[in-house]
């Protein structure tokens, strides 16, 4: 146990869809720079958990403490400055980028939204694309002009633009061609080493989890089976 408080502390999280309790009093913590894998069969509540952690859908009850702040009690406006600090990367690489926006503009927009756009903006966008292994020419493309792996890299570049402390990775390589998965996972591992990012990482592949995660927790039918 580290002396510092955890980066993320989830306590008794509950998410309901009508009569269905998708997340049933789930609690866990995540330290800065750590990778926690969240495993479990399809439909057990993994995506519902991380969606509620990110406050993309408010949980029905429970607490989500991030960087010392209890998010569930904050208004949308109060959350706005915190949102860049916790960025999602979803399974569908195309679904998380606007189909009408060039990759360069999608990354630039992430800087703009936070008021971090200035004369250095274009160079920073180029640097972010380079950092995820995309040559400058890819900046001119639209998402549908990229492969799944390239598109996921672009999504990671956009997430990094907001200088996050936590990436929430919901099956980030499951939709990708097996031949490009290792490259994206290696990129994520390198970024974590360099930037000290924490990862909450949903993944089905046990080999990947044991290689990639510091710790793992398991869900069944909305509950954790180990803590
Ligand atoms: P996982 O990510 O582990 O596959 P989900 O969190 O997506 O699981 O789903 C957990 C349960 O909640 C499932 O029974 C699923 O059908 C249900 N569920 C998920 N999203 C919704 C929704 N928007 N409306 C109603 N039920 C949902
Ligand atoms: Mg899911």
UniProtKB/TrEMBL annotation:
Species for this entry: Streptomyces phyllanthi
GO molecular function: ATP binding; ATP hydrolysis activity
Similarity comment: Belongs to the ABC transporter superfamily.
Top-level taxon: Bacteria
Name of the featured protein: ABC transporter ATP-binding protein
Keyword terms of this UniProt record: ATP-binding, Nucleotide-binding, Transport
Gene Ontology biological process: transmembrane transport
Domain ABC transporter: 8-227
């Amino acid at each position: 146990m580290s002396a510092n408080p955890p980066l993320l502390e989830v306590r008794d999280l509950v998410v309901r869809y009508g009569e269905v309790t998708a997340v049933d009093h789930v609690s866990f913590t995540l330290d800065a720079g750590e990778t926690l894998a969240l495993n479990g069969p399809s439909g057990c509540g993994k995506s519902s958990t991380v969606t509620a952690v990110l406050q993309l859908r408010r949980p029905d009850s429970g607490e989500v403490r991030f960087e010392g702040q209890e998010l569930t009690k904050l208004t949308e406006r109060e959350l706005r400055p915190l949102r860049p600090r916790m960025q999602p990367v979803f399974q569908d690489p195309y679904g998380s980028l606007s189909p009408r926006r060039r990759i360069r503009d999608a990354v630039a927009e992430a800087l703009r939204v936070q008021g971090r756009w200035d004369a250095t903006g274009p160079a920073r966008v180029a640097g972010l694309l380079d950092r995820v292994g995309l040559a400058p020419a890819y900046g001119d493309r639209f998402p549908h002009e990229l492969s799944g792996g390239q598109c996921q890299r672009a999504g990671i570049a956009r997430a990094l633009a907001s200088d996050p402390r936590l990436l929430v990775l919901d099956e980030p390589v499951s939709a990708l061609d097996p031949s490009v998965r290792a490259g994206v996972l290696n990129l994520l591992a390198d970024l974590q080493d360099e930037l000290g990012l924490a990862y909450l990482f949903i993944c089905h592949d046990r080999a990947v989890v044991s290689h990639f995660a510091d710790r793992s927790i398991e869900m069944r039918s909305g509950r954790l089976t180990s803590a």
